[in-house]
Design brief:
alpha+beta; 60s Ribosomal Protein L30, Chain: A
Length: 225
């Protein structure tokens, strides 16, 4: 008896929103849950009418597609299949929460693999163009995405670093957003996180490369301690 593989169903997610009606995509990538957390920071400018800074993280929890595989297993096929869908699901929610790509000024990403997986499983879903290029495009950025990745039990908090989406050396936008994963990842899961902000760090005042004076190891010769 011979068996034939069923061809994967093709989805066009290029223009459609995934905020609703994404059940078939969720099933295809093993999505257990997806949520968005937001926080509002008072602006440094206290004048009436000044908008607050908004920060958000969109979090997807999926079954680890490589659970039980050897460390020599090729991660590419599943990365190519799953990572673009995750990028679309998460950036749609960030844009919805923050007011669209024109409002986003800083971004970052993270992945947390459960204890039955390896750290490379987390990295496979966020460290390739299948995720990063799509996240940059969706949020209107050009910078390399700063990141964190981890292997963790459920119930931990994780800090996602962010920087400016087009000018990563702009220190005012160096910031981080803490996310508590109360029920994820289970041992055979991966949590994938995309984060963004509409503004800089509150009360940023440590200067920038454009204002720094030249510093070398010569400064160690006469430290005023």
């Amino acid at each position: 008896m011979t068996t034939t593989e069923t061809a994967p169903r093709l989805y066009d997610l290029s223009t459609a929103s995934t905020l609703r009606g994404y059940g078939s995509v969720a099933a295809a990538i093993g999505l257990r849950s997806i949520r968005t957390v937001t926080e509002e920071l008072p602006p440094a400018d206290a004048r009436p009418g000044t908008a607050p800074i908004l920060r958000a993280a969109a979090i997807a929890v999926i079954a680890n597609p490589w659970a039980g595989t050897a460390v020599t297993h090729d991660l590419e096929p599943e990365t190519q299949r799953i990572a673009p869908a995750l990028a679309k699901l998460l950036t749609d929610r960030l844009n919805d929460a923050l007011g669209g790509p024109d409002a986003v000024q800083a971004f970052g990403k993270a992945a947390v693999v459960g204890l039955d997986g390896e750290i490379e499983h987390a990295g496979a879903l966020i460290h390739t163009p299948y995720f990063g290029n799509l996240m940059r495009e969706a949020l209107g950025g050009t910078s390399i995405l700063c990141f964190s990745d981890a292997r963790s039990a459920a119930g931990a908090s994780h800090r996602i670093p962010l920087w400016h989406k087009t000018a990563p050396a702009t220190r005012d936008f160096y910031q981080s957003l803490e996310v508590h994963l109360a029920d994820a990842p289970h041992p055979g899961e991966i949590a994938i996180i995309a984060a963004a902000s509409t503004g800089p760090r509150p009360h940023a005042r440590i200067g920038d490369r454009t204002t720094d004076r030249v510093i070398t190891s010569d400064i160690l010769k006469e430290l005023p301690l």
